[in-house]
Every structure is written in structure tokens, then in C-alpha cells.
Specification:
This protein has 322 residues and is of the alpha/beta class. The chain has helices at 7-25, 32-44, 58-67, 84-88, 122-125, 129-134, 169-174, 186-196, 211-221, 228-240, 253-269, 277-288, 296-300, 305-315; strands spanning 48-51, 69-70, 73-77, 89-94, 99-104, 111-115, 136-139, 142-145, 151-156, 177-179, 209-210, 247-249, 293-294. It folds into two domains: 1-9 and 20-223, Rossmann fold (3-Layer(aba) Sandwich), CATH 3.40.50.300; 225-322, Helicase, Ruva Protein, domain 3 (Orthogonal Bundle). The protein has 14 helices and 13 strands. It has a five-stranded parallel β-sheet with strand order 3-6-9-1-10. 43% of the residues are buried.
Length: 322
């Protein structure tokens, strides 16, 4: 086995992607960009944050992805009274064995759907930090491994909505990418009335991949070739967020790693065994915008993080083929 993904390996990833895409888009109408980003994050081994106003299909996208994979899936409905132990699990005393038995929490599944994650307190949200980064949880001094593959699809409403808490920066940084669903186009909304008006299409959705398929695809994606000049390009994009006066907090080194992984996955889903500059530049917004904090100048100018990231990417020299 070589260190670089072969053409046949990339074809396997592409075929898997198309099966998943077709399955998910049978439920999600007119949102190809959001679906593609979700698949890139899935194959790159990351976690996805879906952020938008209520009723635009955030949870539907997460559930469609979960149902498309034949593995364990659990949904955690985040509420103000949710406790960290509800997520990680608790140790319960067993009088028969006179010992404490561990009762796994909602995070013990291959696919975890965190619905409206920002309705829980920051203390409860932080219960996911260890799980998302290290794929295990520690309870009462004992470490418990999570099943593989492990991925979190979380949804949240904008922080301006009543009864929500802003996600801590450490929590946002754990998500590989953040996507916004947006309102559907008129034709897509009319089609939704036809398809969703009588029955829920999720009830008939069947898995088209297994957890083993996802793990194999991730291994293939990790071997997609990245030229040293492109690695420098990725770091240049991330570094630009740390030097811009419009941002008071730039992206972390973790963001560089996540952007590179996402670029590899995008290359494989497009049938390439190598990364091109467009893979990094197209993903910079979804991967970086939720990690940065706007400065006073940006707030006064009513600039969005995505707009600033786009401007920064445009200013980073693109590596040329030699």
C-alpha cells in the first residue's frame, strides 16, 4: 500500500460519496452546497455544525446523514436542564455486585445528533469537548472509548434567538466546519410541499453505507497527495486571520489541520488523488469563519466573518504549477 491514494482508491471514495449524496438529497431539497460540505466533513473525519434559523432543515440534514449509514445513531436534544452526565454517562452503584457500574450517556454512538446544542448551558456543552477531540470520555477517573467511526452533527439557532447560549470558543473550534442552510429556492420549496406534505421521507430512507465503509474511505482520503506548496498555502490562509485588524481572534493551528483534511476529502470526492488550491480556497469559509471573532471595526462596518475570510483568501498568493 502506497502513501498516496491510487486512482482506484479515489474512485471508491467518489462512488461512496455519490451514493450518500443521492440518498440525502432525496430528503433535502435544493441544498447541494450544504450536502456536499456535510459529506466532506464526514469523509475527513470531522464534526459538523449546522447553524441557521428554525425550520430550514438543519435537523433533517443531520438525521438524513445518520440514516444513510448503517451504524448506531443517537440524538441528544439539548435543553437548559440537560446535565453533563446525560451526555457522557454516569457511574451508578450496583448493590448486588457492591460496585459502581458505568451507564453510557448519549454520546456513545457512531453518529451523535446534537439538536439545538446552544440551548444547553456552556457547562453541559463542554461535556462534548473530550469526546470530539479524543474520541473517548473520562468519568470518575476511568476512560471509556467511543465507537468508531465517531462523528457529531450538531445544530444550533443564532445566538440572537431567545433561550440560547453562545458556544464557547473551544467548542466551536472542535467543529471542522459550520454550514448555513438558508431558505430554499421557490421551486425547491414547492417540491418540498409535494414530497413532504403527506409523509416524512426519512421513514423510507435506507442506509447506503456502513461504518466500515466510512472508516475505509477516511483512510483513503488521508493518503490524498498534498504538494508542500499547497500546505504552505493552507497555512498562509489561516495565518492571515491572525494578522487582520478586522478580527480580534484568528484561527488556531487546529484550523490549519482541519482545512487540510477537508481539502483532501474534497479532492477525493471530486475524483482526484491530489489537492489543488481551489480545494482549500473553497473550503476556507466553512472551515474558518466560525472560529474567528470579529473586531470593533468589522462590527461597525457590519461585515460578516465569511466576507472577511473571503477577502483574506483573495489576498493570499495562489501556488502556481511548476
Amino acid at each position: 500500500m502506497t502513501n498516496t491514494a491510487a486512482r482506484t482508491d479515489v474512485q471508491e471514495v467518489t462512488e461512496l460519496t455519490e451514493r450518500l449524496r443521492t440518498n440525502v438529497e432525496s430528503v433535502i431539497e435544493g441544498k447541494p452546497d450544504a450536502v456536499e460540505m456535510a459529506l466532506v466533513v464526514l469523509l475527513a473525519g470531522g464534526h459538523l455544525l449546522i447553524e441557521d434559523v428554525p425550520g430550514v432543515g438543519k435537523t433533517m440534514l443531520a438525521r438524513a446523514l445518520a440514516r444513510s449509514i448503517d451504524c448506531t445513531a443517537r440524538r441528544i436534544q439539548f435543553t437548559a436542564d440537560l446535565l453533563p452526565g446525560d451526555i457522557t454517562g454516569v457511574s451508578v452503584y450496583n448493590p448486588q455486585s457492591q460496585a459502581f457500574d458505568f451507564k453510557p450517556g448519549g454520546v456513545f454512538a457512531n453518529v451523535v445528533i446534537g439538536d439545538e446544542i446552544n440551548r444547553a448551558s456552556p457547562k453541559t456543552q463542554s461535556a462534548l469537548l473530550e469526546a470530539m477531540e479524543e474520541h473517548h470520555v473520562s468519568v470518575d477517573g476511568t476512560t471509556h472509548a467511543l465507537p468508531e467511526p465517531f462523528m457529531v452533527f450538531a445544530t444550533q439557532n443564532p445566538v440572537e434567538m431567545q433561550g440560547t447560549y453562545p458556544l464557547p470558543e473551544a467548542q466551536r473550534d472542535r467543529f471542522m466546519a459550520c454550514v448555513s442552510m438558508g431558505y430554499p429556492a421557490r421551486a425547491a420549496e414547492v417540491a418540498m410541499l409535494d414530497h413532504h406534505g403527506v409523509t416524512n421521507p426519512l421513514t423510507t430512507l435506507r442506509p447506503v453505507a456502513t461504518g466500515a465503509n466510512i472508516l475505509a474511505a477516511r483512510a483513503l482520503v488521508s493518503r490524498v497527495y498534498v504538494h508542500p506548496a499547497l500546505k504552505d498555502y493552507v497555512v498562509g490562509i489561516v495565518s492571515a486571520t491572525r494578522d487582520d485588524d478586522n478580527l480580534r481572534l484568528g484561527a488556531s493551528p487546529r484550523a490549519s489541520l482541519q482545512l487540510l483534511r477537508a481539502a483532501r476529502a474534497r479532492a477525493a470526492t471530486h475524483g482526484r488523488g491530489y489537492v489543488i488550491p481551489e480545494d482549500a480556497s473553497r473550503l476556507a469559509g466553512p472551515v474558518l469563519a466560525h472560529r474567528v471573532l470579529l473586531g470593533h471595526r468589522a462590527h461597525l462596518a457590519q461585515s460578516s466573518a465569511a466576507d472577511i475570510i473571503a477577502q483574506l483568501v483573495a489576498g493570499v498568493p495562489v501556488p502556481r504549477r511548476t
